[in-house]
From TrEMBL, chains A, B, C, D:
Residues 12-147 form the DinB-like domain. Pfam families: DinB_2, FGE-sulfatase. This is Ergothioneine biosynthesis protein EgtB. GO terms for biological process: ergothioneine biosynthetic process. Residues 179-310 form the Sulfatase-modifying factor enzyme-like domain. The lineage of its organism: Bacteria, Pseudomonadati, Pseudomonadota, Betaproteobacteria, Burkholderiales. Keywords: Iron, Oxidoreductase. InterPro entries: CTDL_fold (IPR016187), DinB-like (IPR024775), DinB/YfiT-like (IPR034660), EgtB (IPR017806), Sulfatase_Mod_Factor_Kinase (IPR051043), SUMF_dom (IPR005532), SUMF_sf (IPR042095). PANTHER family: HERCYNINE OXYGENASE, SULFATASE MODIFYING FACTOR 1, 2. It comes from Rubrivivax gelatinosus (strain NBRC 100245 / IL144). Pathway: Amino-acid biosynthesis; ergothioneine biosynthesis.
Amino acid sequence: MPDAISELAARFRAVRAHSEALAAPLSPEDQQLQAMPDASPTKWHLAHTAWFFEAVVLAPHAPGFRPYDERWARLFNSYYESLGPRHPRPQRGMLSRPSLDEVLAWRRVVDAGVAAFIAEADADTRAAAFPLIELGLHHEQQHQELMQTDILAALALNPLAPAACPGEPSPWPAGVDGWLGFDGGEAEIGHAGAGFAFDNETPRHRVRLEAYEIARRLVTNAEYQRFVDDGGYRRAALWLSDGWAAVQSQGWTGPLYWRDDGSEFTPHGPRPRAPQAPVRHLSFYEAAAYAEWAGARLPTEAEWEHAASSASPPSQCFGALWQWTRSSYEPYPRYRPWAGAVGEYNGKFMVGQIVLRGSSFATPPGHARASYRNFFPPGARWQFSGLRLARDA
Amino acid sequence: MPDAISELAARFRAVRAHSEALAAPLSPEDQQLQAMPDASPTKWHLAHTAWFFEAVVLAPHAPGFRPYDERWARLFNSYYESLGPRHPRPQRGMLSRPSLDEVLAWRRVVDAGVAAFIAEADADTRAAAFPLIELGLHHEQQHQELMQTDILAALALNPLAPAACPGEPSPWPAGVDGWLGFDGGEAEIGHAGAGFAFDNETPRHRVRLEAYEIARRLVTNAEYQRFVDDGGYRRAALWLSDGWAAVQSQGWTGPLYWRDDGSEFTPHGPRPRAPQAPVRHLSFYEAAAYAEWAGARLPTEAEWEHAASSASPPSQCFGALWQWTRSSYEPYPRYRPWAGAVGEYNGKFMVGQIVLRGSSFATPPGHARASYRNFFPPGARWQFSGLRLARDA
Amino acid sequence: MPDAISELAARFRAVRAHSEALAAPLSPEDQQLQAMPDASPTKWHLAHTAWFFEAVVLAPHAPGFRPYDERWARLFNSYYESLGPRHPRPQRGMLSRPSLDEVLAWRRVVDAGVAAFIAEADADTRAAAFPLIELGLHHEQQHQELMQTDILAALALNPLAPAACPGEPSPWPAGVDGWLGFDGGEAEIGHAGAGFAFDNETPRHRVRLEAYEIARRLVTNAEYQRFVDDGGYRRAALWLSDGWAAVQSQGWTGPLYWRDDGSEFTPHGPRPRAPQAPVRHLSFYEAAAYAEWAGARLPTEAEWEHAASSASPPSQCFGALWQWTRSSYEPYPRYRPWAGAVGEYNGKFMVGQIVLRGSSFATPPGHARASYRNFFPPGARWQFSGLRLARDA
Amino acid sequence: MPDAISELAARFRAVRAHSEALAAPLSPEDQQLQAMPDASPTKWHLAHTAWFFEAVVLAPHAPGFRPYDERWARLFNSYYESLGPRHPRPQRGMLSRPSLDEVLAWRRVVDAGVAAFIAEADADTRAAAFPLIELGLHHEQQHQELMQTDILAALALNPLAPAACPGEPSPWPAGVDGWLGFDGGEAEIGHAGAGFAFDNETPRHRVRLEAYEIARRLVTNAEYQRFVDDGGYRRAALWLSDGWAAVQSQGWTGPLYWRDDGSEFTPHGPRPRAPQAPVRHLSFYEAAAYAEWAGARLPTEAEWEHAASSASPPSQCFGALWQWTRSSYEPYPRYRPWAGAVGEYNGKFMVGQIVLRGSSFATPPGHARASYRNFFPPGARWQFSGLRLARDA
């Protein structure tokens, strides 16, 4: 038990430090930027993840807890209706105060508070609160990836094309050509057993699959370039109706950050597009149109999970790009949201969104698993999202 | 074979006549109205269903066919990219010409053309074209219901609250209280065998169901009134996030056509809300919020179809209201769109929509079946849509 | 006095009949069309001008008056806050009821009511009410021109390009080349003396003018074509800032109804653009940009009126096109709105609008005068609007 | 002449230093904020005013000039079409780079460059360029006021209501009750003679005035409170039509920064509203509605200038608040924009705007004069704008 406690304390320190390490290369002004209503400033992410520990762990469980500044809850509560009023999401970029220094100071206080709480809580409190600390860490890891996609969207609007990260990107994990076949029949998906999972991954349940094949790797820049060159963005017949409307109303001619000179905008600034690298910053609409053009389709999330969980899974399931599936984000059979405020974490978003599976190069270590269900609206392109093909067997 | 031919000819006459019978009580000015971009004028529906037979049946299959007026294809093509350019959907209400009389004259010519074609086609042509005539009839039946929902939406904007239909509505089919239970296990859904079905109902395939219960009848006005009275439209916790955003941005306080005086706007004009009648003109968001409030949930489309196809199905499956399910509109396993232009009929809309099942009081006779998949965006309220509860067993 | 009474009765009959004559070539469906929020359906114009006589003349002055249908006031009150609530302007096109026939029947009843009132009123009532009848007639004449511009805007949205009027347009009044010079000094503008004028034309007052020249005729299609050919719509330097924003956001490349084949859309349908005819359907922004390109400017409204009132006025002051001036629509010194509801007629629009002077080919006979102040927002293009140049002397 | 040179050099240093002094209390994050498309970040103002000297003075006139960073012109060019492409105005807040420190470093280089240029230019260059330096200083003074209004608009969106300035506001200059009368007749307005003026203030010219009275002071908070209490924001009859539309669509119930607790948001944070202080942060629409309620009107700009230039002018003409007039912003007779790029400074905005006269407490010393024409759209409320009444004599 003391081992579990010290392990949790160590992980808490490590996860918290990683958030700040991600922000470190950015100036206070960078960290203030909000590119669009769906994105948040870096500083806001840092503050929100502090607020989460205050509101979800310390406030209900730590005796004598007092918030660092009670006026800040409304600023940094994201979407928890049950935890009080919230600053309008599109105006997060208007919060120059508290300053970055104040937010970092707040994080220090929350860090100390949680550390003390971990060390001192009695057994009953541990049983009630440690799962929430665990959740808080996974929550913060989600925001670590969002910090990277959101600042990329903001810096992309600057004609100077500044880099969010110094240095050079890591080379891509190698992909493997070809297809992997699976028989039809009953399968099980969803999380079960020990280890953390979000409520939306449960309960583990049986599904019926038809025989299918799934690509061993993601679609590459070179392949996607052929789609573009073949008039992919000009041929309505390849697109879902809403996708074609997006192409026309938003003037899409290629992935979000492709530039005319053959480069793409990355966290390291503009970089040549590597032909063999997985194509990224696609919407679901583009992924589906590409699949149509390629005479294939997107995998369902059950197909994806079944393959990724198999003895010899396809390559690039994790650590490359999130992978659009053909599945809308819906509750699993017998799904129950968590009790309390964190019941708002996942369940209330189960309409209008598409499931992505896997993880990306920006997903923090330890945050990925085969049952993980990421989700975004079908037109979203600012995530590290790519595609893997599937087809009926 | 001659019987099949004369039967088709008779059905063609009957379906076509029914469209015009529905329009008959409406003035030329009424038939010009377009309440919103998603709705179409009555006259446009009459013209579009004429165009469909011209473009899909006669043009490719009738020797020597000449369009009645070749300029009209662009006016009355709805969304078939492969059949040429289209007048913008939001401006269908701007087409005062051709006049209603001209459209009706056109229908006469198309009627005669299809009748002659049915009578005279050789066997090969019959094999190729009669399924398209069949499709054209089901297509026209779909528009018959839309004619009714669309004119209702238009007349609702007139402070005089005029009636689209003379006379009084039929009394509601009686509902039966209680729940009906089904075991978990594998089941089959989807269309198979003889008889018409849309491509989106196929192929029939196996699904895995968990044990569930489904309500024997639809939720009533009286029940929904209790939800409203209990603050249903003011309690964020009951709503999906997108639903709550709709409540706030659009100021919803009750179903679309509820009026403050206890009446609701119907095709017969304002009428008192019958307490035991199924509540109608709900969005998916409202249906889901009600279910949450009631401690239940919406059925999946597989659950619905499995129950409706059972030996003793629940009441009010057909002929009352379309019933929102908890299922996004997605392709069935191994789904293949029809070949040719009619491949655009269903498949390209398989994102961003929710499946409704059953049929409504306005659905033409012969148009309903257990495998039928209707679909609308989750915020749509102008259809004849209600809800049936389900729960885990 | 009896002569004045019978003269008024005759004019009343003539003006009222003219409205209906303008509408006569249009079908009930045509008369239902509303092209945009700023335009109104033909039927609405017919009904509104009936309502005006009811609300402004008969209701306050005719003993025992009862409205034809008391529910209609809210439908056909345009913008008179003091006369009760109003149907939203953008939804005038949604009023299929009352039907055109009902509106025409109403007009008959109002016609009879006003005729009887004219014949029977005592001297005191005449003194109070006859000026309002006079106003009602001028009001109806304004709507006669709007009926023509509004239906043109609606029919222009129909790819069939139908004609609002049968037959051929009249040839243009001849223009005279050159400039007309006026000395600087004090001048008087505004209406005084007998004869009808709107309140916004009063009081007559002195203004200071600098010496100026004004063109003897309007700018022609041929001249405007040279502006277009010279990159007029691509050169920011020629435009006011708001005008350039309009060019870009709305994609303007020429006057509103110019078509690529050298024709323009007119009340008689598409017609070749006569080179010597005045260019029409310009916004103020375009008029000002053309003037800049031509090394000239637009006249102020005082300059225009001074020239038009002079002994030898320029040609095409009246009966050709309304002429944009460089003057914002503001109250004259010591301006007082009329008393009562009709005080809302003009005064409350005195911001955000530009004055046009003269009259157009569509202005009813007897409705034009040198002091008349027409006004529209600077981006409006659907009126019969052209331009005349001026320059400093 | 050396005196004139050293005087210019000294003024240049003083004006430039004042901009930075205004920004000094603000953090880098504060200086990044853009509240709305019409407002700009503080840092952007600092950079734009550096760019102006580079682009307008040094680039055309200083031998061997090289821009500090040639990529920055597109970021900080405000609206000069002739000086190249521009970053979209609504996205100025997205420019985290260059950083505040980089911008300040740039300003140092520009300061040194202009100082050297002033000291070393030969007589011909002085004649050509010194007027542009003078313009650059007045330009920077305009931005000094905008820096204050723009940051106020941004900080007002923060629920913490932070102060842009430390300390307390200065007390208001005392107002004098009553009216001041002026005879009708010819008067002269506009700038003439020595001393700087913008092109829009010229040429001085004669105008005709009717006899009028003008209030000796501005309308106060206490007076405006009575208007509010009397239903001012609920009575359509008091408002211009566009103003009433703004009240309804934007939900106005009082001046922009009034708070429910009797305070108002100021550069020093929320402060009690002093009853005798001039009411501020009004739109033209509100000013006009108040005047209507008070049985008065707004002065024309000619009336205002004539009064302010008289031997015994009204109080609070300068140093209190900008004062809405009843005049649209139009060119004076024989107005000619400056030659070259700076011709875009004023002339192209002469439509859709209303003139304000005087100056505010935030206007830099030496920047006000009786002929000064400030202008904003009629709905703008974020400026330091109040009102002074006038009436016909």
